[in-house]
Design brief:
The complex is a heterodimer of chains A (about 110) and B (about 110).
Chain A: E1 3-7, E2 10-14, E3 19-26, E4 31-38, E5 44-50, E6 56-58, E7 64-68, E8 73-78, E9 87-95, E10 103-104, E11 108-113
Parallel strand pairs in A: 2-11
Antiparallel strand pairs in A: 1-3, 3-8, 4-5, 4-9, 6-7, 7-8, 9-10, 9-11
Chain B: E1 4-7, E2 10-13, E3 19-25, E4 31-38, E5 42-51, E6 54-57, E7 65-66, E8 76-78, E9 87-94, E10 104-105, E11 109-113
Parallel strand pairs in B: 2-11
Antiparallel strand pairs in B: 1-3, 3-8, 4-5, 4-9, 5-6, 7-8, 9-10, 9-11
Classes of the chains: A mainly beta (about 110), B mainly beta (about 110).
Protein backbone atom coordinates (compact mmCIF):
# COMPACT_ATOMS: atom_id res chain seq x y z
CA UNK A 1 0.00 0.00 0.00
CA UNK A 2 1.20 3.48 -0.76
CA UNK A 3 1.57 6.39 1.65
CA UNK A 4 2.71 10.00 1.45
CA UNK A 5 4.51 12.21 3.97
CA UNK A 6 4.72 15.95 3.54
CA UNK A 7 7.27 17.59 5.81
CA UNK A 8 5.98 20.77 7.36
CA UNK A 9 2.30 21.61 7.66
CA UNK A 10 3.04 25.33 7.30
CA UNK A 11 5.76 27.07 5.33
CA UNK A 12 6.38 30.81 5.25
CA UNK A 13 8.43 32.29 2.41
CA UNK A 14 9.30 35.82 1.42
CA UNK A 15 8.17 37.13 -1.92
CA UNK A 16 10.92 36.40 -4.43
CA UNK A 17 12.48 33.62 -2.36
CA UNK A 18 12.73 29.94 -3.23
CA UNK A 19 9.72 27.77 -2.49
CA UNK A 20 10.59 24.20 -1.46
CA UNK A 21 7.90 21.76 -0.39
CA UNK A 22 8.98 18.28 0.60
CA UNK A 23 7.19 15.06 -0.22
CA UNK A 24 8.29 11.50 0.48
CA UNK A 25 6.32 8.44 -0.49
CA UNK A 26 6.31 4.73 0.07
CA UNK A 27 5.11 2.36 -2.60
CA UNK A 28 5.52 -1.31 -3.31
CA UNK A 29 5.39 -0.76 -7.07
CA UNK A 30 6.59 2.09 -9.31
CA UNK A 31 4.54 5.10 -8.26
CA UNK A 32 2.80 7.82 -10.15
CA UNK A 33 3.19 11.13 -8.34
CA UNK A 34 1.14 14.30 -8.35
CA UNK A 35 1.18 17.76 -6.84
CA UNK A 36 -2.11 19.59 -6.43
CA UNK A 37 -2.75 23.15 -5.25
CA UNK A 38 -5.82 24.35 -3.38
CA UNK A 39 -6.63 28.06 -3.28
CA UNK A 40 -9.05 29.32 -0.63
CA UNK A 41 -12.64 28.15 -1.16
CA UNK A 42 -11.71 26.20 -4.27
CA UNK A 43 -11.14 22.62 -5.27
CA UNK A 44 -7.78 21.08 -6.02
CA UNK A 45 -5.99 21.89 -9.25
CA UNK A 46 -3.25 19.82 -10.79
CA UNK A 47 0.17 21.50 -10.71
CA UNK A 48 2.18 18.68 -12.25
CA UNK A 49 2.56 14.93 -12.37
CA UNK A 50 5.20 12.28 -12.89
CA UNK A 51 4.31 9.02 -14.58
CA UNK A 52 7.33 7.79 -16.55
CA UNK A 53 10.28 9.25 -18.43
CA UNK A 54 12.08 12.43 -17.44
CA UNK A 55 12.39 12.71 -13.69
CA UNK A 56 12.32 16.52 -13.65
CA UNK A 57 8.76 17.57 -14.30
CA UNK A 58 7.64 21.09 -15.06
CA UNK A 59 4.18 22.27 -14.18
CA UNK A 60 2.03 25.35 -14.25
CA UNK A 61 2.85 28.71 -12.62
CA UNK A 62 6.62 28.10 -12.67
CA UNK A 63 6.60 25.05 -10.40
CA UNK A 64 8.68 21.95 -10.98
CA UNK A 65 9.35 18.72 -9.13
CA UNK A 66 11.98 16.02 -9.34
CA UNK A 67 11.33 12.33 -8.87
CA UNK A 68 14.20 10.70 -6.98
CA UNK A 69 13.64 6.99 -6.72
CA UNK A 70 16.65 6.38 -4.46
CA UNK A 71 15.33 8.91 -1.96
CA UNK A 72 11.62 8.07 -2.50
CA UNK A 73 11.02 11.79 -2.84
CA UNK A 74 9.11 14.15 -5.10
CA UNK A 75 9.88 17.63 -3.78
CA UNK A 76 8.18 20.68 -5.31
CA UNK A 77 10.12 23.87 -6.02
CA UNK A 78 9.65 27.32 -7.46
CA UNK A 79 12.63 29.66 -7.81
CA UNK A 80 10.84 32.87 -6.89
CA UNK A 81 7.68 33.02 -4.79
CA UNK A 82 4.82 35.29 -5.75
CA UNK A 83 2.03 36.50 -3.50
CA UNK A 84 -0.42 34.50 -5.60
CA UNK A 85 1.36 31.27 -4.58
CA UNK A 86 -0.23 31.44 -1.13
CA UNK A 87 -2.31 28.27 -0.98
CA UNK A 88 -2.33 24.73 0.33
CA UNK A 89 -0.31 22.15 -1.56
CA UNK A 90 -0.92 18.43 -1.61
CA UNK A 91 1.36 15.65 -2.76
CA UNK A 92 -0.38 12.46 -3.90
CA UNK A 93 0.64 9.02 -5.12
CA UNK A 94 -1.11 6.34 -7.11
CA UNK A 95 0.06 2.91 -8.13
CA UNK A 96 -0.24 1.15 -11.45
CA UNK A 97 -2.61 -1.46 -10.04
CA UNK A 98 -4.80 0.98 -8.09
CA UNK A 99 -7.39 2.26 -10.53
CA UNK A 100 -7.96 5.92 -9.72
CA UNK A 101 -6.96 5.58 -6.09
CA UNK A 102 -4.97 8.58 -4.98
CA UNK A 103 -3.27 8.61 -1.59
CA UNK A 104 -2.82 12.20 -0.40
CA UNK A 105 -0.36 13.73 2.00
CA UNK A 106 -1.63 15.92 4.83
CA UNK A 107 -0.92 19.11 2.92
CA UNK A 108 1.41 22.09 3.35
CA UNK A 109 0.01 25.58 3.80
CA UNK A 110 2.22 28.19 2.11
CA UNK A 111 2.21 31.77 3.33
CA UNK A 112 4.02 34.40 1.23
CA UNK A 113 5.18 37.54 3.02
CA UNK A 114 6.03 40.83 1.28
CA UNK B 1 -16.36 24.96 -19.71
CA UNK B 2 -15.20 21.59 -18.38
CA UNK B 3 -16.14 21.34 -14.74
CA UNK B 4 -17.25 19.30 -11.76
CA UNK B 5 -20.20 20.91 -9.99
CA UNK B 6 -21.16 20.21 -6.41
CA UNK B 7 -24.27 21.35 -4.56
CA UNK B 8 -24.76 22.69 -2.03
CA UNK B 9 -21.51 24.50 -1.30
CA UNK B 10 -22.38 24.93 2.36
CA UNK B 11 -24.84 23.10 4.59
CA UNK B 12 -25.56 23.20 8.30
CA UNK B 13 -27.89 20.49 9.51
CA UNK B 14 -28.70 18.35 12.52
CA UNK B 15 -27.85 14.81 13.52
CA UNK B 16 -30.00 12.17 11.88
CA UNK B 17 -31.51 14.29 9.12
CA UNK B 18 -30.84 12.63 5.78
CA UNK B 19 -28.99 14.71 3.24
CA UNK B 20 -27.66 14.38 -0.29
CA UNK B 21 -24.75 16.21 -1.85
CA UNK B 22 -24.96 16.23 -5.62
CA UNK B 23 -22.03 16.01 -8.02
CA UNK B 24 -22.19 16.43 -11.77
CA UNK B 25 -19.47 16.49 -14.42
CA UNK B 26 -19.73 17.60 -18.05
CA UNK B 27 -16.60 15.93 -19.40
CA UNK B 28 -18.06 12.48 -20.15
CA UNK B 29 -15.71 10.98 -17.58
CA UNK B 30 -16.16 7.36 -16.59
CA UNK B 31 -14.47 7.60 -13.19
CA UNK B 32 -15.86 9.61 -10.29
CA UNK B 33 -14.91 9.74 -6.65
CA UNK B 34 -15.78 11.35 -3.32
CA UNK B 35 -13.23 12.57 -0.78
CA UNK B 36 -13.42 14.20 2.59
CA UNK B 37 -10.80 16.69 3.73
CA UNK B 38 -9.97 17.12 7.40
CA UNK B 39 -7.20 19.26 8.90
CA UNK B 40 -3.93 17.38 9.20
CA UNK B 41 -5.28 14.35 7.35
CA UNK B 42 -5.32 15.52 3.76
CA UNK B 43 -8.00 14.03 1.51
CA UNK B 44 -9.35 10.56 2.13
CA UNK B 45 -11.41 8.64 -0.37
CA UNK B 46 -14.98 7.72 0.62
CA UNK B 47 -16.35 5.94 -2.46
CA UNK B 48 -15.51 5.74 -6.11
CA UNK B 49 -17.21 4.65 -9.31
CA UNK B 50 -15.58 3.21 -12.40
CA UNK B 51 -18.71 3.60 -14.52
CA UNK B 52 -22.50 3.58 -14.43
CA UNK B 53 -23.80 1.13 -11.81
CA UNK B 54 -20.22 0.28 -10.70
CA UNK B 55 -19.23 1.64 -7.29
CA UNK B 56 -16.81 0.56 -4.59
CA UNK B 57 -15.65 1.58 -1.14
CA UNK B 58 -12.69 3.81 -0.54
CA UNK B 59 -10.80 4.22 2.71
CA UNK B 60 -13.55 5.78 4.85
CA UNK B 61 -16.96 4.59 3.56
CA UNK B 62 -18.77 4.14 6.91
CA UNK B 63 -21.91 6.26 7.17
CA UNK B 64 -22.05 7.12 3.47
CA UNK B 65 -23.86 5.80 0.41
CA UNK B 66 -23.47 6.57 -3.26
CA UNK B 67 -25.19 5.73 -6.50
CA UNK B 68 -24.25 6.04 -10.16
CA UNK B 69 -27.32 5.78 -12.30
CA UNK B 70 -26.10 8.20 -14.96
CA UNK B 71 -22.59 8.78 -16.20
CA UNK B 72 -22.52 12.46 -15.31
CA UNK B 73 -23.95 12.28 -11.76
CA UNK B 74 -22.54 10.77 -8.58
CA UNK B 75 -24.48 11.85 -5.47
CA UNK B 76 -23.21 11.31 -1.95
CA UNK B 77 -25.87 10.34 0.58
CA UNK B 78 -25.68 10.62 4.34
CA UNK B 79 -28.72 8.73 5.59
CA UNK B 80 -28.23 9.51 9.27
CA UNK B 81 -25.54 12.18 9.59
CA UNK B 82 -23.51 12.43 12.77
CA UNK B 83 -21.19 15.19 14.05
CA UNK B 84 -18.07 13.21 13.07
CA UNK B 85 -19.12 13.66 9.45
CA UNK B 86 -18.61 17.40 9.72
CA UNK B 87 -16.02 17.99 7.05
CA UNK B 88 -15.17 19.46 3.66
CA UNK B 89 -16.21 17.15 0.84
CA UNK B 90 -14.87 17.01 -2.70
CA UNK B 91 -16.13 15.23 -5.76
CA UNK B 92 -13.61 14.40 -8.48
CA UNK B 93 -13.61 12.78 -11.89
CA UNK B 94 -11.18 11.47 -14.47
CA UNK B 95 -11.52 10.09 -17.97
CA UNK B 96 -11.19 6.38 -17.21
CA UNK B 97 -9.68 6.14 -13.74
CA UNK B 98 -6.28 4.79 -14.72
CA UNK B 99 -3.54 5.56 -12.24
CA UNK B 100 -1.70 8.01 -14.50
CA UNK B 101 -4.65 10.33 -14.98
CA UNK B 102 -5.06 13.50 -12.96
CA UNK B 103 -8.43 14.03 -11.36
CA UNK B 104 -10.63 17.09 -11.80
CA UNK B 105 -12.12 18.41 -8.57
CA UNK B 106 -15.24 20.32 -7.71
CA UNK B 107 -15.10 23.40 -5.47
CA UNK B 108 -16.14 21.48 -2.38
CA UNK B 109 -19.09 21.21 -0.01
CA UNK B 110 -18.65 22.24 3.60
CA UNK B 111 -20.95 20.20 5.84
CA UNK B 112 -21.61 21.00 9.49
CA UNK B 113 -23.58 18.38 11.44
CA UNK B 114 -24.83 19.69 14.79
Amino acid sequence: AQSVTQLGSHVSVSEGALVLLRCNYSSSVPPYLFWYVQYPNQGLQLLLKYTTGATLVKGINGFEAEFKKSETSFHLTKPSAHMSDAAEYFCAVSESDSWGKLQFGAGTQVVVTP
Amino acid sequence: EAQVTQNPRYLITVTGKKLTVTCSQNMNHEYMSWYRQDPGLGLRQIYYSMNVEVTDKGDVPEGYKVSRKEKRNFPLILESPSPNQTSLYFCASSLSGTATQAQHFGDGTRLSIL
